Amino acid sequence: VKTKPTTSIATGNISTMIPAKRAEADDRRLTFITAYYSGGGVFVGDFIDLEKLTVKGYYSDGKYEEITDFILSEYVIEKEGSNKIIVYSGEKEATFFVTGRTVKRINAYYTEGSVTIGESLDPDKLVVYATFSDGKTEKVKDFDLPDMVVTEIGRNEFVVIYKEQDATFYVTGKEVRKVRSINASYVGPAVI
Fold first, then answer.
1. CA distance 127 to 162
2. pLDDT 10s digit of each residue in the chain, 192 long?
3. Which pTM value belongs to this model?
4. Strand pairing report for 14-17 and 126-132
5. How far apart are CA 53 and CA 56, in angstroms?
6. How many Cβ atoms sit within 10 Å of the Cβ of residue 121?
7. How far apart are the C-alpha atoms of 151 and 28, rounded to whole Å?
8. Angle 19-25-31 (CA atoms, 0-180°, nearest 5)?
9. Which ranges constitute the DSSP H helices of the chain?
10. CA dihedral of residues 6, 8, 9, 13 (deg, nearest 10)
11. Is the separation of the CB atoms in 23 and 30 below 8 Å?
12. Fewer CB in a 10 Å sphere around the end CB: N or C, the chain?
């Protein structure tokens, strides 16, 4: 082992530096990797949520640790159903699957009852259910309601849109309440 003498200016002492043995760090090798996606289904055309992907490596020293230095074969879900994704880290790879989802249909109904003409619908009173390609039906909130104002007495038709699917629902419009008479009375001392 070659050594290089050093001198400390503060004390004037001479010491010898011996390089640390690097064999331990050099011998550690990545043996294999695993990948697990906990994000559930992803809409076709959307990105995989990387925060829900766990990649771990098993090393030659027996340690099993999370890996953040990896690349994926695909980052965007391209088709409905099972999508095979390969994760690469160094020369190792692992496979995981993500279900590509699409919306097959939506249903909607308004829970408020009748609404006065000229007033807008309350989006919080609109219940929208989406049925997905994986067979699941879920209540959804991030829908579009382009027209929200009740315009006539009786049946008013509205359309709600979610992920390129639409559904029609109806709300009964009621007449604006008109004041027919006002009654007033006064109790107290005479007023001049």
1. 12
2. 444 444 434 444 443 333 434 445 568 899 999 999 999 899 999 999 999 999 999 999 999 999 999 999 999 999 999 999 999 999 999 999 999 999 999 999 999 989 999 999 999 999 999 999 989 999 999 999 999 999 999 999 999 999 999 999 999 999 987 777 788 888 888 877
3. 0.64
4. unpaired
5. 10
6. 20
7. 73
8. 165
9. 23-27
10. -100
11. no
12. C
Q: What pLDDT score was predicted for residue 2? A: 43
The contacts found for 142-148 with CB under 8 angstroms, 24 or more apart, are 143/106, 143/108, 145/121, 148/120, 148/121, 148/123
Nearest residue to 96 (alpha-carbon basis) of 109, 87, 105: 87
Question: Residue 171, exposed/middle/buried by CB under 10 A (0-12, 13-18, 19+)?
Answer: buried
Length of the chain in terms of residues written:
192
Phi, psi of 25 (to 5 degrees): -70, -40
Q: How far apart are CA 177 and CA 115, in angstroms?
A: 12
Structure tokens at 11: 């004390």
